[in-house]
Write a structure and sequence with these properties.
280 residues; alpha+beta; Type Iii Antifreeze Protein Isoform Hplc 12; seven-stranded mixed sheet
């Protein structure tokens, strides 16, 4: 701080001098402002971000679940043709189909299993899904064996196929080589037997009514010897039932049911009363 003494003009002696003091300039007052805060770096683990991601994932999973439930199909086996009870399944009998079964899928046979060689416990129609119960062994039913029968082609219906139910008659015809029985009788030797295979069938100019066709049928194990004894070397005639369901084609043993197909030229005229034989 500087001080100076200054006497007024015209002041004489004896007058008191006046001292002037120069004060320093006042410092400007400080203005208060907001306190600066430290800038935080962005965090990836943000609660709102996490909740958003979870909501997106939940909606995607829910949509996928709804779509998959609407198209919940499974591959199962269906049969390609009518098959009677006792038919041994082959590859040609099965067709893989994809269907929606929901809770009933376990009742049918999946394509992951191989049922070839298994025997049907009951008849299954063409196009039907193959149920598991159809391959279960029926209690109290005798084991079946395959029996090959030579039949002249003229005595085999043209539409004979695997899986059909047939009756087999033995007819006495001396001209065809039967020598044991030559009285013109007709005997039912096999009744309602499922056809397992057919071989030796030919068509065209080489086919003749006397050409032998091998028809393989399934019969009870204990009836095979009785069937062969009942044939007694006589020619055989095959009669085909239109239905593969045994209950629907039940007829009187020794007679031809109304739903059976008889090959042309195989009727036995003037024969005696048919003699029933072992059943298939």
């Amino acid at each position: 701080m500087s001080r100076g003494v200054c006497a007024p003009e015209g002041a004489g002696r004896g007058e008191r001098a006046v001292t002037a003091v120069r004060l320093p300039a006042a410092a400007p007052a400080e203005v208060s402002g907001p306190t600066p805060r430290r800038v935080r770096p962005p965090r990836w683990l943000d609660l709102r971000l996490v909740l958003g991601v979870l909501l997106v994932l939940a909606s995607v999973l829910l949509g996928a679940r709804i779509v998959s439930a609407a198209d919940a199909t499974v591959p199962v086996w269906a049969v390609a043709q009518d098959l009677a009870a006792g038919t041994e399944l082959s590859t040609d009998d099965l067709v893989a189909v994809t269907v929606r079964l929901d809770d009933t899928a376990r009742a049918y046979l999946s394509t992951r299993t191989r049922p070839e060689g298994r025997t049907l416990a009951y008849a299954v129609r063409k196009g039907e899904l193959l149920p598991r119960t159809a391959l279960e062994e029926a209690k109290g039913v005798e084991e079946l064996v395959q029996l090959a029968l030579p039949v002249q082609s003229g005595y085999v219906p043209p539409g004979l196929a695997r899986g059909q139910l047939v009756d087999v008659f033995a007819v006495a015809d001396p001209a065809a080589g039967a020598t044991t029985v030559a009285d013109g009788s007709v005997s039912l030797v096999v009744r309602k037997a499922p056809v397992q295979a057919i071989s030796g069938r030919s068509e065209g100019v080489l086919s003749t009514p006397t050409t032998a066709v091998q028809v393989v049928v399934a019969v009870a194990d204990g009836d095979a010897d009785e069937v062969l004894a009942a044939i007694a070397g006589r020619p055989l005639v095959v009669v085909v039932h239109e239905s593969v369901d045994g209950d629907e084609v039940a007829g009187t043993p020794g007679t031809v049911s109304s739903d059976a197909t008889v090959p042309s030229g195989a009727a036995a005229d003037g024969g005696t009363t048919p003699t029933p034989g072992p059943t298939g």
